[in-house]
Each structure stands twice: as C-alpha cells, then as structure tokens.
C-alpha cells in the first residue's frame, strides 16, 4: 500500500537536507519509487523523462501550506526552483511520524536512498530515469530500453554520462 505522498515528499526532502531543482526531485523520486518505495505516484514520459503531475501538485500544496520552502535562483538558462523543509514542516513531519510509525518505518531506507540519489548529477538522473521508464513501463528489454532512451534524449549511447546512467538504471531495477 502506498504511503501518503505529502508525507513522503516532506520526509525525502528532509532526508536530503533540501533538493536542488524540480527535475532532480522528480527523477530521484521516480527512481526510489522504482526501487520499491511505496509512494504510488503516477509517472508518464515527458520532455525530460518521467514526470508526475501528482508530485508537482503536491509540492505546490506543501509550499502553499508552509511545509516546504521554495527558493528561486537565477541560472544561465532560466531559473532553478529549490526546496527545503521549513521549521513548521519539520514539526508537522515529527508529529506525523509519531502518529504513523508504520509509514515511518516503511520509508526510512527509501529516504536515505533518495538523499543518495540527490547527490547524482541531474543529467545522469534524467537519463537513468528515462531508461528505467522504458524498461519498466513500456516493457522493453535492457538493450531496447537503452536504445530508446538514448534516441529520446538525443545522446550517444557510448557517451560517459549515458554509460553512468545505464549503471544507475540497472542498480535501480535490480535492487
């Protein structure tokens, strides 16, 4: 059974001590969910790989509720939206965990893994998540999943980033 998405997002962002960029948040959450985190967000293939409108909406609700803090930072090409858990959000997280110990136990390892994934380069996360999506959701074998992901992302399959992403994708799927 899936845990509450709002709780999972708050827990994961807290474990990572904040998340830089919406893309990193989406891809790391997708990958940790594919590893078995009982989050249950629905993803579909979009411009930058797997995307969940549910996750995007939940982040906005958490921001509006004062649970998450959103920092907008200028970048060379546009802006970056970065997230952290507010003091009020931490209090609510602690209270929720006291009231729902089963969900807390289910997500502890996944939260640590999410934090690890957030240390990866965003491009690697994007590529790995796209490979996993083709493998898991579209039923491709590894060779076809990698080929389709490389074509979709317009990247050379023998490039270093794509090779690193393949290694990460295989770790995710094989546990």
Kindly identify the CATH topology of the largest domain. Arc Repressor Mutant, subunit A
Residue runs with pLDDT of under 50 for 5 or more positions: none
Q: How many structural domains can be distinguished in the coordinates?
A: 2
The percent range for strand residues is 5-15%
Give the averaged pLDDT, no decimals: 94
Q: Give me the side-by-side strand order of the main sheet.
A: 1-5-4
**Count of DSSP-assigned helices:** 8
- Secondary structure class reads alpha+beta
Model description:
This protein has 175 residues and is α+β, with helices and mostly antiparallel strands. The chain has two domains: 1-118, Winged helix-like DNA-binding domain superfamily/Winged helix DNA-binding domain (Arc Repressor Mutant, subunit A); 120-175. Helices cover 62% and strands 14% of the residues. It has eight helices and five strands. The strands form two sheets. Strands 1-5-4 form a three-stranded antiparallel β-sheet. The chain is globular. The mean pLDDT is 94.
């Amino acid at each position: 059974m899936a845990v509450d998405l709002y709780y999972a997002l708050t827990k994961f962002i807290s474990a990572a001590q904040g998340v830089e960029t919406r893309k990193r948040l989406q891809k790391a959450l997708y990958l940790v969910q594919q590893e078995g985190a009982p989050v249950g967000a629905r993803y579909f293939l979009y411009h930058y790989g797997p995307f969940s409108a549910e996750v995007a909406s939940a982040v906005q609700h958490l921001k509006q509720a004062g649970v998450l803090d959103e920092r907008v930072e200028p970048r060379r090409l546009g802006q970056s939206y970065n997230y952290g858990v507010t003091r009020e959000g931490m209090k609510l997280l602690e209270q929720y965990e006291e009231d729902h110990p089963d969900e807390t136990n289910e997500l502890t390892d996944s939260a640590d893994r999410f934090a690890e994934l957030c240390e990866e380069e965003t491009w690697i996360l994007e590529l790995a998540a796209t490979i996993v999506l083709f493998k898991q959701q579209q039923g491709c074998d590894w060779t076809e999943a990698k080929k389709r992901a490389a074509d979709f992302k317009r990247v050379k399959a023998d490039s270093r980033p794509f090779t690193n992403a393949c290694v990460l994708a295989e770790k995710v799927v094989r546990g």
